[in-house]
Amino acid sequence: MPIQLESFAGAWRGTNRLLMHGPNGLEEFVSETSLRASVELEGLLLEVRYDWSHAGKPRQGLLVAGFDPKGGKVNAAWMDTFHQRAGLMVCTSEKAAAASGFEVKGSFAVPEGPPWGWTIGLRVDAAGRLLFEMDIITPAGESAPAVRAEYQKS
Predict the structure, then answer these.
(1) CATH class of 5-153
(2) Fewest CB atoms within 10 Å of the CB: 14, 18, 42, 73?
(3) How far apart are CA 112 and CA 89, in angstroms?
(4) Which of 16, 105, 33 is nearest to 65 (CA)?
């Protein structure tokens, strides 16, 4: 079954959990978040704008995802004011989008060493919640949660 983009459309409010891995282990920062999604270009594109905060500073992000209606694959561009300030991260899916959502992967450069990976997942669960999840991927392929946001329609 093809992805149901209309299920993402509209205004959402919820809780954002930023997970940072540092020398003292895993730290979690929780903030309120809002998200607005719109279906564009005859159902071929989903635009997602979201905001949250960290350390008292407002943050924003934008994800634009295009869908291949025949193969179901997803291409996306993502940027935000916390993780990805240096420019758009281009992401692609490894498999077709499911009816409930999709996952795309991209990468980013670090000052020294090989690039790191980033996974973005967006789906609506059986309870009608929108789940926006991001994972960081080490050059060795190890994945760890970076963002977990959960929304309800507002």
Answers:
(1) mainly beta
(2) 42
(3) 19
(4) 105
Positive or negative, the CA dihedral 87, 74, 29, 109 is negative
- Convert the pLDDT of each residue in 139-153 to its tens digit: 999 999 999 999 999
Average pLDDT, whole number, for the chain? Answer: 94
* Domain extent listing, the chain: 5-153
Cα 82-93-141 angle, rounded to 5 deg: 70
Per-residue model confidence as pLDDT tens digits over 34-86: 999 999 999 899 999 999 999 999 999 999 999 998 888 999 999 999 988 88
Residue among 78, 75, 142, 86 nearest 110 (CA): 86
Specify the 3-state DSSP secondary structure of 6. Answer: helix
Q: Write out the two tokens for 142.
A: 């190890």
Q: How many residues does the chain have?
A: 154
CB neighbours of 30 closer than 8 A, spacing ≥ 6? 15, 16, 17, 18
pLDDT score of 1 more than 60: no
Residue 53 phi, psi dihedral angles, 5° rounding:
-145, 155
Residue that has been written with the tokens 């309870």 in this structure: 127
By three-state DSSP, how is residue 130 classified? strand
